[in-house]
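Late entry, evening session. Most of the bench is empty. Finally got around to the prediction I had been postponing all week. Sequence below, unchanged from the version circulated by S.P.
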Amino acid sequence: TTLAPGQPLFVTLRWQATHAPLPDLRPRLALVQAGRELSADAAAPALGRYPTDRWQAGETVVEHRRLTVPPEAASGPAEVVLSLNGHRLVLGQVEVRVGERLFTPPPIAHPMEVRFGSVVRLLGYDLPDRPIRAGEPLTLTLYWEALEGAAGTHYTVFTHLLTPEGQIVAQHDGVPAGGRKPTGGWLPGEIIVDPHPMAFREPDYRGPARIEVGLYNPTTGERLITDRGEDFVYLPGELEVGQ
């Protein structure tokens, strides 16, 4: 398994109670690289909802845990380690791969500046220099700058092509950079080049359109608020969808 900063590792643990009652045990699952813990989960089993002192003798309990590679991780192997009552068991190994990080913005065809909370700043966007044709994928490239609040957060970017009445005719939602650059792995000041291939939901639409962009929490659906007080931003200019 290869992981980038910000990407999660899901681990399923299967326990069996050899006797009862058990004490309230707290197994510690950690991602360890060069002797340093990158991420750890030491909660009671099943997200704390089913502690071991409630287990019955012979009962099997299956739980799921999540570890996340932090932004400061380095490239190289990391071990998945389970610790309990002084015992340590290496469950496996993953490879952490840190891609190239960019801290100077490249040329941007349409520069702008909109801040989304304390997480990111939208620096601008690019669109293909060709007519927009209904039914053909439209790739919108966004340029983000990570702010101090980006680390440890996980947001999905949404891009909508809208009619003047607000109907979505094309869209793409996704983790930045095709999943390779989750917001939780960004370093402050890092620049992320983020292409979104917007697919048409209404291939028969013809006429004017505009694009709205934003970010939301994929678990709760809650959107980040901009410094303009809205949970989205319209990209400047009106587009025309043709044949």
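Two things to note before I forget:
The chain has no helices and 17 strands.
The chain has a mean pLDDT of 95.
Will write this up properly tomorrow.
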